[in-house]
């Protein structure tokens, strides 16, 4: 399957009207097409799809296959007969892109594996820290005969938990990125495919599984969880 992108934007289907397409910056909402469907959209002469002319195909299969040749190829006849001037800005764009790539560390599988292990160890430490604090609260509950801790002490515990969970969340996010980079090496992703997969790996809002998520949000003044 394939998605359509111009490098920044993607083609999505209008959820309110099947068969109508919109531009989106979110790869998560990108519509997947067969090669035939995607090619038909790009090559279509219909005015309402003219904005897709500059889009190209990105393979979304696990092997990371992409289309090597532009689907807009028409041969070389009359190539230089138009009166348009070459835009020198293209050279700057390509140079900037090349310099950006050259500045990358370009980690190999060994380096990524090392980072993944270090992150996994620290993630486990965070999990253990949260568990220890929760068990400490249970221990206090038993030893105090069910007495509630003083508010200022609970506030300190709450801040401590928040600090650890914030670190936990950041580590998990980076682990997602590392795993995508590992997949990119194994499956020989193109840069565009890698960019797409990394953008999909970004943190998404947590969805509560019980009523207590909303109860906690309301207590904290965090608003609705319907995001």
Could you explain how this protein is built, in words?
The protein starts with a strand and ends in a 7-residue tail after the last helix. It folds into 2 domains: 2-59, no CATH class; 104-220, no CATH class. 51% of the residues lie in helices and 7% in strands. By secondary structure, it is mainly alpha-helical. Helix 3 (109-143) packs antiparallel against helix 4 and helix 4 (151-187) packs antiparallel against helix 5 (191-200). Residues 63-70 have low confidence and may be disordered. The radius of gyration is 25 Å and the shape is elongated. The strands form 2 sheets. A two-stranded antiparallel sheet has the order 1-4. The protein contains 6 helices and 4 strands, in the order E-E-E-H-E-H-H-H-H-H. Strand 2 and strand 3 form a beta hairpin.
By secondary-structure content and strand pairing, the structural class works out as mainly alpha
Integer tally of domains? 2
Q: Note the beta-strand portion.
A: 5-15%
> What percent of residues adopt helix (DSSP H or I)?
40-55%
In short:
By secondary structure, the chain is mainly α. Helices cover 51% and strands 7% of the residues.
């Amino acid at each position: 399957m394939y998605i359509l992108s111009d490098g920044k934007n993607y083609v999505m289907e209008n959820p309110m009207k099947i068969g109508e397409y919109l531009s989106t910056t979110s790869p998560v909402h990108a519509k997947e097409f067969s090669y035939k469907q995607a090619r038909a959209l790009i090559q279509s002469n219909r005015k309402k799809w003219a904005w897709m002319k500059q889009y190209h195909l990105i393979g979304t299969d696990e092997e990371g296959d992409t289309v090597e040749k532009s689907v807009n190829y028409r041969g070389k006849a009359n190539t230089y007969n138009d009166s348009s001037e070459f835009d020198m800005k293209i050279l700057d764009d390509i140079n900037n892109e090349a310099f950006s790539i050259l500045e990358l560390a370009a980690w190999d599988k060994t380096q990524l594996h090392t980072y993944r292990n270090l992150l996994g160890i620290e993630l486990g430490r965070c999990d253990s820290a949260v568990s220890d604090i929760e068990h400490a609260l249970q221990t206090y509950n038993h030893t105090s005969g069910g007495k509630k801790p003083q508010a200022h002490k609970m506030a300190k515990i709450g801040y401590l938990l928040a600090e650890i969970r914030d670190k936990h969340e950041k580590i998990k996010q980076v682990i997602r990125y590392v795993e995508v980079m590992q997949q990119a090496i194994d499956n020989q992703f193109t840069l565009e495919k890698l960019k797409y997969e990394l953008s999909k790996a970004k943190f998404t809002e947590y969805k509560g599984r019980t009523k207590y998520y909303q109860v906690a949000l309301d207590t904290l003044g965090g608003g609705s969880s319907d995001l």
